[in-house]
């Protein structure tokens, strides 16, 4: 007994349909069948004789809605198409937002038009009692008249035009927080990152995947990247940024400068304001971010798991 609708091939579905409608009627509904196609269908019909009623019902429903869609589009513009074709252009989130307020029968009609993956997504977002009613409606769609299906398609298409586009807004997240932190002074940056770590450690971990600090450059970046970054920054800013850094880090930067710049390099002597040093370091970090945006490296690849040592 064949009981699994989802394992059926296209040929098997057509063979089941032929056995239900009869070959003479089915041929008038399915156009452009060659003699070879007809022979294959007849042979498959013999193999599909032992098919459960539920599977036959599903095949009939699928053909019905496909036929309705095609006829509707022909009436609209004279060309073959589908009244629910607009659903394909919606994201999964938009699709859920569109049909969630609708009655179970309308939702069932939409479910009949989309892939199994999308059906599952929609059903998983529904309350148990609503899911049950929708599934019952899905099994009883064959009695819906053509004009009702047309009306559902027309109304939903109109409503879909008012859905917000995915790119119209941002949902925030670790990267957006990291971008905001990069505009702050060092003390404020550290304060907010510490607060996030205490309040939501998982979010803090996500932020650190995108949050690049001056110290991270020395911790994670290889010499070739340090060389490219420093060569893109004014020598005076480099000297200012290195104020207070360890001798090892200072020597590493100098050794990666061109010989001419090495000869011109002069360390900053005496006291300097913290704001001035931070400003110079921000310039170097910003240059690193530009390089990452241009594809020179991936911060996540350099840091491995995305977790940085503070």
What would you say this structure looks like, in words?
- This protein is mainly α.
- The protein has three domains: 87 residues, Flagellar motor switch protein FliG, alpha-alpha superhelical domain (Annexin V, domain 1); 37 residues; 99 residues, Flagellar motor switch protein FliG, alpha-alpha superhelical domain (Annexin V, domain 1), CATH 1.10.220.30.
- The protein is built from 19 helices and no strands.
- The longest helix has 25 residues.
- The protein is elongated, with a radius of gyration of 32 Å.
- 19% of the residues are buried.
Assign the CATH topology of the largest domain.
Annexin V, domain 1
Q: CATH superfamily name of the largest domain?
A: Flagellar motor switch protein FliG, alpha-alpha superhelical domain
User: Globular, elongated, flat, extended or rod-shaped: what is the shape?
Assistant: elongated
Q: Which sequence of SSEs, written as H and E, runs from N to C?
A: HHHHHHHHHHHHHHHHHHH
| CATH domain class name of the largest domain | Mainly Alpha
The CATH architecture assignment of the largest domain turns out to be Orthogonal Bundle
The Cα radius of gyration reads 32 Å
Number of DSSP-assigned strands: 0
């Amino acid at each position: 007994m064949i009981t699994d609708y989802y394992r059926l091939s296209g040929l098997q579905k057509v063979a089941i349909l032929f056995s239900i409608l009869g070959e003479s009627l089915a041929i008038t509904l399915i156009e452009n069948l060659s003699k070879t196609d007809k022979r294959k269908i007849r042979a498959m019909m013999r193999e599909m004789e032992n098919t459960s009623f539920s599977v036959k019902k599903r095949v009939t429903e699928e053909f019905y809605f496909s036929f309705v869609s095609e006829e509707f589009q022909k009436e609209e513009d004279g060309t073959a198409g589908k009244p629910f074709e607009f659903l394909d252009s919606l994201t999964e989130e938009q699709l859920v937002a569109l049909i969630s307020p609708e009655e179970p029968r309308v939702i069932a009609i939409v479910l009949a038009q989309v892939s199994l993956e999308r059906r599952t997504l929609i059903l998983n977002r529904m309350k148990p009692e609503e899911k049950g009613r929708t599934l019952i409606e899905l099994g009883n769609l064959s009695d819906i008249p053509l004009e009702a299906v047309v009306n559902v398609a027309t109304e939903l298409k109109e409503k879909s035009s008012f859905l917000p586009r995915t790119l119209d807004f941002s949902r925030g997240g670790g990267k957006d927080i990291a971008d905001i932190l990069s505009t702050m002074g060092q003390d404020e940056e550290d304060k907010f990152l510490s607060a996030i770590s205490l309040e939501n450690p998982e979010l803090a971990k996500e932020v650190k995947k995108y949050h690049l600090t001056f110290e991270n450059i020395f911790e994670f970046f290889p010499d070739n990247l340090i060389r490219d970054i420093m060569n893109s920054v004014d020598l005076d800013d480099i000297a200012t940024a290195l104020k207070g850094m360890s001798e090892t880090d200072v020597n590493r930067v100098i050794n990666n400068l061109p010989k001419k710049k090495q000869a011109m390099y002069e360390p900053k002597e005496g006291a300097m304001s913290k704001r001035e040093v931070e400003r110079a370091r921000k310039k170097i970090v910003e240059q690193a971010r530009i390089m990452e945006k241009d594809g020179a490296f991936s911060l996540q690849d350099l840091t491995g798991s995305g977790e940085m040592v503070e």
